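Technical note accompanying the year-one report. For the benefit of new consortium partners, we illustrate the data format agreed upon in the data management plan: each record pairs a sequence with a structure-token string. No post-processing was applied to the example shown here.
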Amino acid sequence: MTPRAAITLPVTALCGGTDSRALPEETPVALVYNGSTLAVMMATPADLSDLAIGFTLSEGLANAADLSEVEIVEHPHGIEARQWLSKARAEALAQRRRAMAGPVGCGLCGIDSLEQAARKVPTVRPGAPISVTEIARALDSLRSAQPLHDATRAVHAAALWSGTMDLVREDVGRHNALDKLIGAMAHGGQAPQTLVLTSRISVEMVQKAAMAGFGVIASVSAPTAAGVRLADQAGIALVTHNRHGTQIFSHPHRITSGEPQ
């Protein structure tokens, strides 16, 4: 049994008196392949099997058919998520092995070269168009599907939308939330459609989305310029919708007209 995702702690108010509030936990999680640690990250200790599988897929370390069951092992100072790869995959992994340790906001900590930062991603096969109204509905639905955020106001979410909110995963790290979603989709055999995010759409988020096959990314937060360029190259429609309106940054032909309700 993994640690709780949140804990309630006492706080002191400036106006005097004491209170308490829920805060998200973050725990060192080591991703271990064939007995060797590849990456260590700070993550919310929930849905860790999804995190391990999603990281493996989004980083291109193995295909879904190559994945084994994940073994979650607790230690006094953190958690190991253990996976086993075929001999060929393990040898390829050894060639690009790295140790990743750093703040949850960094998606490129520990990479070996500039080439890894600019790694190529597949071109996503275009799916059915989606309307502006549906994007607004998806983002509105996500706001009511984040129990950990409701309790703590301090985590990110990534969700699969296909006309309904099919899956949601939360984590203190936006990259972790997306990896958890990708892992859960792989486990459930669910196809990628629209990716809905609460976070900034950085180049690393677009890389992971492209590896998973998402044709549309929608978020309440703005993208980076590099994220827009990569989404355009990968065939991904990138859209933001918030109180300032709706903006389409790439492949606008994938988004149909219609005002949000």
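Partners are asked to follow this layout when depositing records. The longest strand covers residues 36-43.
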